[in-house]
Amino acid sequence: MHDKIAVPAAHERPAPATEARLLTISLVIPARNEVGSLPAVLRELPLDILHEVLVVDGHSTDGTAEAVRALNLPKVRVITQHGRGFGMGIQTGIRQAQGDLITIYDADGSYNPAGIAQMRQAIEAGNDFVFCSRYRPESGSEDDTFIRLLGNTIFTFLLRWMFGVQLSDALYYYCMGRKSAYEFVDPRAADFALCIEVPIKVHRMGFRYTEIPMRERPRSAGESKVNALWDGIRILKTMIKLKLTGL
Ligand SMILES: Nc1nc2c(ncn2[C@@H]2O[C@H](COP(=O)(O)OP(=O)(O)O)[C@@H](O)[C@H]2O)c(=O)[nH]1
Ligand SMILES: [Mg+2]
Q1: For ligand 1, mutation pick of 27, 28, 29, 32 (most atoms within 8 Å of CB)
Q2: Where are the domains of the chain?
Q3: Per-residue pLDDT averaged across 98-113, rounded?
Q4: For 22-245, CATH number?
């Protein structure tokens, strides 16, 4: 049911090897109350390979936006998200990003910056999207709790079983995608369900995607914004809706 949606035919897409060197990268950093970690995250970014860094502020009340502006780093811009929720923040960032490639990047210090260049290589190899996985043999996570690992195992199983998505880590959302492909994917979830909405649509639409192993570091400060129970229920509802409606 609704398993494929029309996307540009392969011959209409750019040839991977020839255009790859010219691709520019926008980093989209969703941030809500991350003043304790975000300045250090920004300082360790490989700014030389980035076109721009958009910090999407989720109406922080701890001075996150002000702290980023005070750093006055080149290429780094703070924008305020529309509405509320992680997904709304990502949607705001994707719409404003100008690069050919969009990477989503946590503000909490848990993402390894080396992943950016590794993901670009995977795009250059001919993919439209690349997702990082903490659950391949050569990867791992120092940020997982038992509940998060359990939830992720269940959602990854559902993602594969209900939709046939060939990924081993449903909820990491350290990924890179072509902006042109994101325009077709057009994510709509306002909350953390956006993390599964994107791979489901990428798979259904027939985009080329792959995953690479990644080691997740611990959150360096502050607290997770995820509520395992309520966000889990929201993600499940979104999966069922996507299965039933094909949207
Ligand atoms: N703009 C925005 N960012 C958010 C929101 N909720 C969470 N984030 C950010 O999204 C990223 C992922 O959230 P996090 O709490 O680390 O989730 P976890 O990694 O699953 O524990 C972090 O950088 C958060 O600051 C939100 O409502 N709006
Ligand atoms: Mg995090």
Answers
A1: 32
A2: 22-245
A3: 98
A4: 3.90.550.10
